Amino acid sequence: MTEERGRGCGHQLRSLDSTGQGQESCWRSLRQWIHLKWLLVFSLLLVCGLLLQVFRNLQESQEYLPKSNFPPPFALKLLSQEELRKLFNYDGLWLFPQSQCECEKQSGNYIFRESYNKSELEAVKIRRKAEFEHFRRREGLPHPPPMLAQPNIPFGYPIHGVEVMPLHTILIPGLKFDGTEAPLYKVTLKALLGTLNTLADTPDSEVLGRGQKQLTILTPSQNRLNFILQHVTYTSTVYQSGAVDIVSIEFGSSVAKFPVNINQPTIPKLFDPGPERELRNLVTIATKTFLRPHKLQILLKSIRKYYPDVTVIVADDSEKPEKIDDIYVEHYIMPFGKGWFAGRNLAVSQVSTKYVLWVDDDFLFTKTTKIEALVDVLEKTELDVVGGSVSGNVFQFKLLMEQGEDGDCIHKRSGYFHALEGFPSCVVTSGVVNFFLAHTESLQRVGFDPRLQRVAHTEFFIDGLGSLHVGSCSNVVVNHQPRTQSSDSDQATLEKAYSRFRTNTQEQVKFKLSLHYFKNHLQCYTQK
Amino acid sequence: MTEERGRGCGHQLRSLDSTGQGQESCWRSLRQWIHLKWLLVFSLLLVCGLLLQVFRNLQESQEYLPKSNFPPPFALKLLSQEELRKLFNYDGLWLFPQSQCECEKQSGNYIFRESYNKSELEAVKIRRKAEFEHFRRREGLPHPPPMLAQPNIPFGYPIHGVEVMPLHTILIPGLKFDGTEAPLYKVTLKALLGTLNTLADTPDSEVLGRGQKQLTILTPSQNRLNFILQHVTYTSTVYQSGAVDIVSIEFGSSVAKFPVNINQPTIPKLFDPGPERELRNLVTIATKTFLRPHKLQILLKSIRKYYPDVTVIVADDSEKPEKIDDIYVEHYIMPFGKGWFAGRNLAVSQVSTKYVLWVDDDFLFTKTTKIEALVDVLEKTELDVVGGSVSGNVFQFKLLMEQGEDGDCIHKRSGYFHALEGFPSCVVTSGVVNFFLAHTESLQRVGFDPRLQRVAHTEFFIDGLGSLHVGSCSNVVVNHQPRTQSSDSDQATLEKAYSRFRTNTQEQVKFKLSLHYFKNHLQCYTQK
Fold it and tell me: Which residues of B101-120 are buried (b: 16+ CB within 10 A; e: fewer)?
């Protein structure tokens, strides 16, 4: 166009008068037109560029509602208390965090502090609080609040599973940096219960604080930084198993923290079953007897019918213990009337086989009393205890706990949690009948409290809460000797004396309730 | 310039002949010049722009060596084995991860498998391996490899300390999203051993899978997304204390994983010290006696001089146990020669106070035997056991362990780890002399192995590795009765019999070494 115009101006020149002026103004306007054209092109490009930028910013920063069928935004709100109560229930208990737990006032339910006289209760509370605090300190409670990772931290690091034995050294896995380029990288690592180092061989100026609680890496190369981080070591310097160190890694304002567990693993206590895996090398039978030597004799005779050489440990706190004529029985004499759980604890303390089978002194072994079946369950699972059946009664019960300020609430519910995989006759529960096979080490670990002198059963499983994994199988059955009074007059006298001890007196009930209040730091108990 | 040229062309016109052609070529070149000028300007701007971009990319992506005094880059290399061996040493042991540990062949050091006959060793190894694997399964070992967080994940999440009781529900803290804008956010959470939900009240289409193992959040608003995440709940559905669930949170290709610990806390077992904190309500003295009733009597007499009513528990496996005339002594009769550690385990199993003081039956209490001082140490620290001094001998020793494939290596070193804060006469160590105060619950938890019938001491502390925190104080002293033979002929006879049992025979040594091999899964032992 410009050329045409130019030619036009030229033509015009030839066709017009020869005054240079007409021609000059034509060329001037042509020049202006060329400049204008270029300016327009330029401006157009600029405007397009700006528009593109604005559009991109728009896309990035503002919310863009797509053509979809989403409803208009709701107000931010939480579920109502009513809706919340419909969730998170188990066995009729609402197992959601609360500051206080409660037990329904009902027959069979107990509020433990009521077992104390009002005059002594305040002093008891103070002592209980002091003992509880000592226990908590020893357990490392309360645990510190959860460690939170922030979004978009330019670090890779281990969040779980880093463990070191006291005074040992480990490599810290997973440390890396993937952040913005910088002329110089200064990354600092800090520990509290140990010292840091790196296996990377570097000039002195590149890594500072080797073998100290603070390690500083100063390097211009992100490649080298990552090589150094990949080989960072942690050395535990405080002899304190069970402690958790918090290690931090920083770059500029970015900080990440992660836990290092200082832990001496529990040493194994294994038992050699011997080359033939004879039952007597695997299992010891344990029982306690009191004023019922005739019943004990019947039990022993029935055991020997099926298991002629399995060791039987008898804890005896009778007034006049009778001799037991059996080379595989170990007979322990206790102070008279020392007590039921003291005897149980004693008997278990003497076992030197992997498993111990608990029986009461008035049981009766039959051909369905297959100890081998119970051994099979414990050998193949991670259970600590597996109960059998006493004349068809498995007495399975669950124990559920709610935490509360003045102590926890414990709820006993009959039944079980779920089936035991691989064993159709067996289930997983919290407590069983008084006929069970257990890992000796587990029973010793929990213990039978010698303070429980008379009637007690559930107490052992409450003491085991958090320590014992319990199962129950209905296919291994032991019988109960008949409860009718003996015809023999001496035996009948003993049985009468036994009954007197065996009755749950008011005083005994009160004592056991006060024990739950103080010893187990419980508030109350419900049962269904 | 263009105008000048233009005018020049015009002037040229006026000054030249009147042929249009000369003029036309002048204007043509002028037009070309204007176009060229603009093209030049344009190209210059373009080139400048490109150069700027290149320069910025250069700055961002490439390494830029500042003017500094850093040396030229070193090759990436690790410290040599020699340099490495100079680090991470403790008590002459190199405590750094190795696949195998070693014990120097030296007098006093033991390689445990050598205690077995070569003919039986292979079978023993197989049995040991099977028992060890059962133990590991029960302990949840091996632990899974550490969980690693990747850099620049747009999520906030909890990395440590999230704990829930079995079958309970908790709020998961710290979940948030801070990533790139998107028209629609689809965030998925997954659990394995529990179900997920949120307390946020949302339309059904916004949160899918409530109460399931997979929760999906579908929302266009990052604000709402974060509100929902802030209120996510986790419900444990498998009754398995000690398990660790791995919960994941995903958005597009970004995934973060974190652990949730399913744990039933161990229930407390507290002891009421009573309103007056009388020592007899805090401490029980325990001892074992065998064929030395006269020495036992001397011990009891010396105890009563200072502690008239503290309960003393006596485990007695003598052939003819002699009656003990003391209303505060509880006397337990065991099968003859049942054994040293069986007796210790028995005595401890009968204690119903918070603390138990272990004494040997040939000790002698003096005015420096202040039980109260030991109680003070345990009351104010987190120690489980605190040893005293027997006639000036504290017998403190450290136990250090190295892990290995065919079993661990254990190293006994005399001395202690460090001072006990707050108690100038006391230190922290692994083992002490046979005069100590302990938490009854801790002693029962570790146990004295009834398989150790004759001479044994260190074995208890090895069994306690990983479970017991041990201290030792030199300021609480008990004396040892003189070892000279009794003048009384009956007593001398008993003492001779005792000595026969007390000697460490070859067979007994062999048995104890084989026990360390099998039971503790140890390879070898060194001592210095």
Answer: bebeeeeebbebbebbeeee
- Separation of alpha carbons A257 and A247, rounded Å: 6
Question: What are A179's two structure tokens?
Answer: 């952040």
CB contact at 8 A, B353 and B467: no
Check A334 against B332: CB less than 8 A apart: yes
H helical segments located in B62-72: none
The 8-class DSSP code of residue B334 comes to -
Q: Answer whether B220 sits within 8 Å of A70, measured CB to CB.
A: yes
Pairing of strands A147-149, B89-90: unpaired
E-only strand ranges, B301-402: 312-316, 329-333, 355-358, 363-364, 385-390, 397-402
Q: How much is the pTM?
A: 0.85
Considering only alpha carbons, which residue of chain B is nearest residue A264? B466
Helix (H) or strand (E) holding B90: strand B89-90
Contacts (Cβ under 8 Å, ≥6 apart) of A261:
A162, A163, A164, A244
d(CA A474, CA A433): 11
- The three-point CA angle B323-B324-B326 to 5° equals 145
CA-wise closest residue to B332 among B354, B314, B311:
B314
Q: What is the arrangement of strands in the sheet containing A194-198, beginning at the earlier edge strand?
A: A169-171, A232-236, A194-198
| Strand, coil or helix: B411 | strand
Which of B11, B65, B95 has the highest number of chain A CBs within 10 A, making it the mutation to test binding with A? B95
User: Which residues does B69 contact at the CB level (< 8 Å), separation at least 6?
Assistant: none
DSSP B289-304: ESS-HHHHHHHHHHHH
**Cα–Cα distance, A254 to A152 (Å, whole number):** 9
- What tokens were used for B397? 């020793």
Chain A environment of B139 (Cβ under 8 Å): 265-266
* Residue in A closest to B73 by C-alpha: A221
The closest CB to that of B466, out of A83, A205, A264, belongs to A264
Per-residue model confidence as pLDDT tens for chain B (528 residues): 445 554 555 555 444 445 555 666 777 777 788 888 888 888 888 888 788 877 766 655 544 444 444 455 568 899 999 999 999 999 999 999 998 998 988 888 999 999 999 999 999 999 999 999 999 999 999 999 999 999 999 999 999 999 999 999 999 999 999 999 999 999 999 999 999 999 999 999 999 999 999 999 999 999 999 999 999 999 999 998 889 999 999 999 999 999 999 999 999 999 999 999 999 999 999 999 999 999 999 999 999 999 999 999 999 999 999 999 999 999 999 999 999 999 999 999 999 999 999 999 999 999 999 999 999 999 999 999 999 999 999 999 999 999 998 999 999 999 999 999 999 999 999 999 999 999 999 999 999 999 999 889 999 999 999 899 999 999 999 999 988 777 777 777 777 777 777 677 888 889 999 999 999 999 999 999
What element of type H or E holds A402?
strand A397-402
Angle between helices B20-61 and B2-15 in degrees, nearest 10: 170
Element housing A350 (H / E): none
Question: CB distance B270–A152 less than 8 Å?
Answer: no
B352: chain A residues, CB-CB within 8 Å: 342, 449-451
Interface confidence (ipTM) of the complex: 0.84
Residue B202 to residue A74, Cβ atoms within 8 A: yes
Per residue, the 3-state secondary structure of A459-488, as one string, reads HHHHHCCCCCCEEEEEEEEEEECCCCCCCC
Rounded Cα distance, A296 and A343, in Å: 15
- Judged by CB atoms closer than 8 Å, whether chains meet at B132 and A169 is answered as no
Find out whether A9 and A30 touch, Cβ atoms under 8 Å. Answer: yes
